[in-house]
Amino acid sequence: MSGPTAAMPIHAPAKLNLCLFLGPRRDDGLHRLCSLFEPLTLADSIEVSEASQDEVVCPGVAGENLAARALSGLRERGWRSPPLRIAIEKRVPVAAGLGGGSADAAAVLRLATGEVADLAELAAELGADVPSQLVPALALVRGVGERVERLPEPEPHAVVLLPDGGGLSTAEVFAEADRLGLGRGDGELDEIAGRLRAAVGAGASPLAYAELLANDLESAARSLRPRIGDALDALRAAGAPLALLTGSGPTAFGLFEDLGAARNAAERLGRDDAIVCEAGRAP
After folding, report:
1. Which residue in 104, 129, 164, 216 is the catalytic one?
2. How many domains does one find in the chain?
3. Is-catalytic flag, 15?
4. 108 within a domain of the structure (yes/no)
5. What is the SS3 assignment for 68?
6. Are 43 and 103 in contact (CB under 8 A)?
7. Catalytic residue list contains 186
8. Is-contact 71 46, C-beta < 8 A?
9. Strand 31-50 relative to strand 84-89, pairing
């Protein structure tokens, strides 16, 4: 883009880990993974406008902003749009395993599509979840997040999210997984990837292959925050055909056939923090 002449709204959709299989730890300390990511209609709202100098504003989020790093990375690679003010309204819970910060960064990178080479490389430098969110879509994600294989859009379905206040450290969850001796070999990850790819087929709902979906980090996350188990039990009691942890947590989610079923379950839960949204497509 050459730079917006007026404020331009964009969306940064959250992502859901439909499953997460933990592989070996590499020499750099990161783990190989196999996961299915899908976008949610739950999204941060971002307004982009021209300014006198680059500025990223994100009220309520302390510390370094990944979207600001994304903009700086574009400038370092020669992006010549006019200076921009990027104002982020957070709707995706922070530090909840839903990829909100990565979604914001990916949305900023998309502004330079076709104008800056190797956006995927820059995305990988910013964080493991950013490459998959450059194009929000159902994807099989491998490596440490940099290997992204787009898959057909699934049949409509919905989720109920229980974020549990966020704030569970990803690094601490992975460290606990190592302490517990969790993980699989590369060969098993390859086999799982093949089964998932075949199950998705031409766009099946995840509920059609629910028996393949699991999160290897769940026991580690529950060890650090036991009430995650209570959230999963509550989702199942409310009628969720499948309830899992997303990413490293702490958000628990229940999968449902449609929004109506998800809303009914949320009513039965009676929790103020429950979020209902569609899954498998971006807003």
Report:
1. 129
2. 1
3. yes
4. yes
5. helix
6. yes
7. no
8. no
9. antiparallel
